[in-house]
Amino acid sequence: MCSAQVPYLPERKPRLMLKGTKPAVVKKIQPVSIHGQISLDVYFVDPDDLDGQVSLARVGPEAVPRALEPGDAVDLHYMLGVVTQITRRG
Questions:
Q1: Alpha carbon 16 to chain centroid distance?
Q2: What percentage of the chain has pLDDT greater than the value 90?
Q3: SS3 label, residue 62
Q4: Across-strand partners of 33?
């Protein structure tokens, strides 16, 4: 019996951004306390797809501009695939 073999094609994962910035639009900001230390969960989307997948960055309050609000256009600063700072665009 002969059976056709389908070649294995691994899924392509998005490349990890080692260092750089990426534009985004803030959807929601949620403070969170972990062992008494305050962090901010910043939910964001791609500015070219406002109804697309929502992603999350957890950063310290010192890494976020004051009075950041949902709808604000921002730049996400990455180091080794992790958001380390968020700045306003413009």
A1: 12
A2: 79
A3: helix
A4: 38
pLDDT at 3: 56
| Residue 86 burial class via C-beta count within 10 angstroms: exposed 0-12, middle 13-18, buried 19 and up | buried
Round to whole Å and give the CA distance between 18 and 8.
28
Write the CB contacts of 60 (distance below 8 Å, at least 6 apart in sequence).
38, 39, 40
d(CA 71, CA 80): 26
Confidence of residue 25 (pLDDT cuts 50, 70, 90): very high
Copy the structure tokens of residue 82. 């992790």
Cβ neighbours of residue 34 closer than 8 Å, sequence gap 6 or more: none
Flag whether pLDDT at 6 surpasses 90.
no
In the chain, the amino acid numbered 36 is: G
